[in-house]
Amino acid sequence: MKRKWSLSAAYLFYPAVIIILLVCVLAAAGCRVKNRIKIDVSPGLLAARTADFDELLAIINQYEKISDLKSSGMKATLTLGKWESGSQEEYRSAPGYILLRQPSSLHIVIQNPVIYKTAIFEAVSDGDEFSAWLRDVNRIYKGRNSAKELVSDDRPDGIPLRPDHLYKAIIPEGIDPTEPGLRISFEESADKITKYYIISVYREGPPPLIHIARKIWIERSQLVISRVQSYDANGRLTGDIAYSEMTPVDGIPLPAKIDIDRPEDGYSLTLEFTKGSWGVNSGLHDDSFVLPLREGAETVVLREK
């Protein structure tokens, strides 16, 4: 009885025959079919440590131990403009300092890179309210951190930067697994440099949907946060924060560099901190978070576009 071949079987059979014949031809011709290549394995891959979910949660939530935080040796580099716009504005790196206090207070000063310790920008923020002073126009702008787009008559294109963005970048938000409507997933990932644990936080939306809120990347050779991504209710990436050179200060890992990318707001900001400039729980008082009065400064209330 003759065997009948189906069309699907033929499609599977013929490529296999061709591969076998090709290997035989190459071998007969003295060609090497494969070659073993030595590669250098990154120390980060070799040093990857393990942790369970509770240990990872403790790594994320350890920043709740911070009552206040300050750095006197900061350098800021700002870039304005969305990628799709085709052009961006890069500003010269400038020194400054920053103060933070739980749960939401921030005071940042950016100084002239040429004239020593002369402030060119200063902002304070507490909760949803912030005030920012610009030296070049001698105006104090007041607005809300939660506003999507803030504009004024003199700045119709808007002011994208929010002090609250900086606060959440420097002091990562914790996770309460018992919070109603919260869902958490746990996975592993790796690249050629190191391995990661990724904690993803989801929130309930209109049934039956849930939406991604945050992804927290934990680098496994040091077991420290290396990246935090945030999303809006529509799944758009609103913030991408990368941390470099984490060093313990009073037992809390703090970065030497933070890269903040805000694609929806159209800006990116790099903050660099000199070694030994971090101070933890030094007892900052209320007057540390008051914007100083400037003679002749005009106050402008920003409105939501």
Summarize the helices and strands and which ones pair or pack.
Elements: H1 7-28, H2 43-46, H3 53-61, E1 68-80, E2 89-90, E3 94-101, E4 105-111, E5 119-126, E6 129-134, E7 139-144, E8 150-151, H4 163-170, E9 182-190, E10 195-204, E11 210-219, E12 224-231, E13 237-244, E14 247-249, E15 252-254, E16 257-262, E17 267-273, E18 278-280, E19 298-301, E20 303-304
Parallel strand pairs: 7-19
Antiparallel strand pairs: 1-2, 1-3, 1-17, 1-18, 3-4, 4-5, 5-6, 6-7, 8-20, 9-10, 10-11, 11-12, 12-13, 13-16, 14-15, 16-17
Protein described:
There is one protein chain. This protein has 305 residues and is mostly beta strands. The protein has one domain: Lipoprotein localisation LolA/LolB/LppX (outer membrane lipoprotein receptor (LolB), chain A), CATH 2.50.20.10. The chain is built from four helices and 20 strands. The chain has a 16-stranded mixed sheet that branches. The protein has a two-stranded antiparallel sheet with strand order 8-20. Strands 14-15 form a two-stranded antiparallel sheet. β14 and β15 form a beta hairpin. The N terminus is likely disordered.
